[in-house]
């Protein structure tokens, strides 16, 4: 699906980032022959695929509308991009019903956007998930849309405790780099939201990113100082409490993943995200939601697996640059 280019999107946000993203990937353009055939790579080698082992986590994209328009938002969210419309609480309930009628072992429901708290149905669907006994993981920027729901969140925390985790995007531990990506005036509201969640005893986590040349250890040390100074109850050395994500750029060159890569890299298909998760999206113009292979590729028809969880239980061919750069290689090389 063609989406507005970043430069067009960001003009529509009050927090327009100024200048290039501090997280831009430096690589040659991706050759057109790569990632074009789900069966074989451009070199004619057998492309790797990932079977669904168990649907442990089902994600819902709540809609692409967001209060921000970050420079390299992988899903191209903005205050005006509704390519993925607000999913309804009724549609979410249908998929939860399918999990239960199918006897699936799903334990966690994730919500991502856009900004989930902009969806008017979001409190209802989150309550439904928690009332049914699932763990809920909510990805948010902790800014104004979340703060409008403080009372409802406190009630849910009181009722469900640590089954509700809020994972807040804080792209860097410095205001300068965070705002270079997210735009001016995006730092203090996010920090305020994070402090509010911490002060009120929520189970919290942070999602950060590594600028080019910064090591994992340096970043964790930087976040640790920030969390300590701000009184935020997160252990920056714990990789589940502070997740540092590799970069994504589907236009930049990257090696394709062949079946031989698993042994070369000493990785196993079962360790890849789409072995244990799927994401439900409601695309604009479609009557009902669909199930995508993962959270990273919501628009590509090649990663649309069907209308139901049952249809979406088929293996996924790793036929997208994100499969290589984000999921499998993560900075490693797969050349024999
Ligand atoms: S806050 Fe998240 S969803 Fe919104 S534009 Fe930024 S990266 Fe995208
Ligand atoms: S990007 Fe590719 S490998 Fe990664 S989870 Fe999605 S489909 Fe699977």
TrEMBL record:
Domain of life: Bacteria
A Pfam family hit: Radical_SAM
Family annotation (InterPro entries): Aldolase_TIM (IPR013785), Radical_SAM_PqqE_MftC-like (IPR050377), rSAM (IPR007197), rSAM_sf (IPR058240)
Gene3D superfamilies: Aldolase class I (3.20.20.70)
Location of the region described as Disordered in the Swiss-Prot/TrEMBL record: 1-23
Cofactor: [4Fe-4S] cluster
Molecular function (Gene Ontology), one example: catalytic activity
Domain Radical SAM core: 61-216
Keywords, in A-Z order: Iron, Iron-sulfur, Metal-binding, S-adenosyl-L-methionine
Biased composition annotated in UniProt, kind: Basic and acidic residues: 1-10
UniProt protein name: Radical SAM core domain-containing protein
Organism of derivation: Alteripontixanthobacter maritimus
